[in-house]
Amino acid sequence: MYRVRRAHHIGYTHRDPMDLQTTRPPNLRQLRLFKLLHEGASIRAAGRQLSISQPAATLRLASLEKYYQRTLFERRPDGLAATRHADALYARIRAAFGLIDEAVAVARGARMPLASLSTTLNRLTVSQLLSLVSIDRYEGFSNAAGHSGLNKSSIHRSLAELEAALGIELVHREGARATTTPQGKLVARLFNLALGEIRLGEAAVHEVDGVLAAPINVGAARIVSQEVLPRAILRCSREMPSVRFEVRLEDHETLLHELRSGALDLVFTTFRPLDSPDLVVEQLFESNLRIICRAGHPLAGLGAVSAAHLARFPWILGMDPASSAARHWRDLFEREDLAPPVPWVRTSLPAMVQALLRETDGLALEIRSVRHAERGTCDLVALSKSIPDSERHVWLAYRRHWQSTKAHEAFLEAVRAIAAKV
Fold first, then answer.
1. What's the distance, CA 265 to chain centroid?
2. Which residues pair with 286 in a beta bridge?
3. Where do the domains of the chain lie?
4. Which of 19, 77, 260, 301 has the fewest CB within 10 Å, making it most exposed?
5. Is the pLDDT of residue 11 over 70?
6. What digits encode the pLDDT tens for the residues 387-416?
7. Element (H, E) at 174
8. Whether CATH 1.10.150.390 fits 17-204
9. 159-168 pLDDT per residue, tens
């Protein structure tokens, strides 16, 4: 368990750590200076390497410390000494620049001389990174502007500067529509991962003071979002009140794409991702379908339930007849040479299903997840009739080189503990 406390620092205006996901990150020139200083360069040497004066470098460092609201270096007669906050921040910033350097190398390859490559890297801006990432995700200047916080003219200018610096076309423009080229998509993915590391740098600084504030972005299949994730979020929120969660329900391929691009930290899916060198996959639990009804239902407690029994009662089913659950339901009857009954109600709303079951002799399918007693639905029971071949695995996937925060580790610990009870 992590002890959570709010930190107060004299000399800085406290910024709520819950704002860090939406706060614009510091500029790359400040962060490159920080990286050089942490690696042992003096203010003068770092400024010379970045083609700025010593006073300008000093001002950049002061601005960066104001942004993070922490002293990053102690000023000593023999030079600068990194603080614990700087050490925590450095791990994230080093990873971010590794990704940015990789993106530029991918874009230019061996065509760019080493000196030109260094100049290009030093001139990149956060606006350029954000602009390309936003176009890649939202496919249009208006949409990109609406989601990135940049105006359209700024995005146009940033992309033009970025393409000129890299010497390649990153975006295909067609009227108001804009999409990334194949090479642009790869560069955008690396840029987005880099921006994620920069944003987590602030969370790393907060962790030094015992404040867990990293945003947790999750993609999930419905089976996980209905039971396991809500319980894990509730458990973690009691211990980490500054952490914000975002849970997205998308198709399997979209979730994996957003995981690889850095938009998601974790993905919970019922489709096992193919073996891939860039992902780590683990099985969380196995689940299956079962038939549920109210506790006083005529079939409740009956030892041998046949398809003929099931056909006598009204059914409440999900909206999609093409789903695997609907297919298994039809097989229940067809295995015993019976025509599946016409569903009484079609709905995917769990609350409506449960309300109808409590007041009628209706039947419904449920994905077995968390233990019945833990769900707090003791007025609903499962029939003894099994549903053949309805087993499904739930998988957890994350990027192989993903550097989790303490907040992520606590969340994963909660998820695994709850999944173990399935």
1. 3
2. 393
3. 17-204, 214-286+393-419, 289-390
4. 77
5. no
6. 888 888 889 999 999 999 999 999 999 999
7. strand 171-174
8. no
9. 999 999 888 9
